[in-house]
Amino acid sequence: MTSPPYAVAIDLDGVVVDFISGFRDEVRRAYGVEIREEEITAHDLNLVLGVSRDEARDLVLRTLARDDLDLYSGAERGLRHLVDAGVEVHLVTSRASWQGRSQERTISWLGRRGINHPVHFASLDESAEGQKYAVAARLDCFVDDNIAELIGAMEHRGETRLLIVFDHPWNRCVDARSRLTRVRDWSSLVAAISAASGRHPHHG
Known about the structure:
Blueprint lengths: L6 E5 L7 H13 L13 H5 L3 H12 L10 H10 L3 E6 L1 H5 L3 H9 L11 E4 L14 E4 L2 H10 L5 E5 L13 E4 L2 H12 L7
Helix pairs in contact: 1-3, 4-8
């Protein structure tokens, strides 16, 4: 019997897409305040800014509506290499629950940035904020910038063997159970998944 492909869920904003650069710009426009990424030390952005949840939500929505958000360096190439190596990539996002828009809108948005199905991912899985670990797919690995999502995967998904934190100031933690693998860029992310899966991307 053929073993199933190594399956990975990769969060969109904060891992594939640089959400924070646009968010910083929206903060500057709204409040005249320059905020550095190093100062964003919590995932709950209202707590970072000392504003209401509604104000923070408005900033998030304005950021998601921008057409100038960039991919992180190496993201497009890294996704393509993983798929070429036989890894089953599921992109996971809570954008629809924030924006009230369809999955197709996000797929079209990704396509304009060169991220296309099936070259870069098997599916785009929508979820509610804080519930990405509850996506239906069988998963061997989960990649996120939100520690709460990874702890949820640890508690609720026994089959998820590799939990990867895409490093940012808002997700630094002690990792008391030594369950988390921390990566700082797409090169180290692809290397970690390749090592765990035994499936190495083709270079060239």
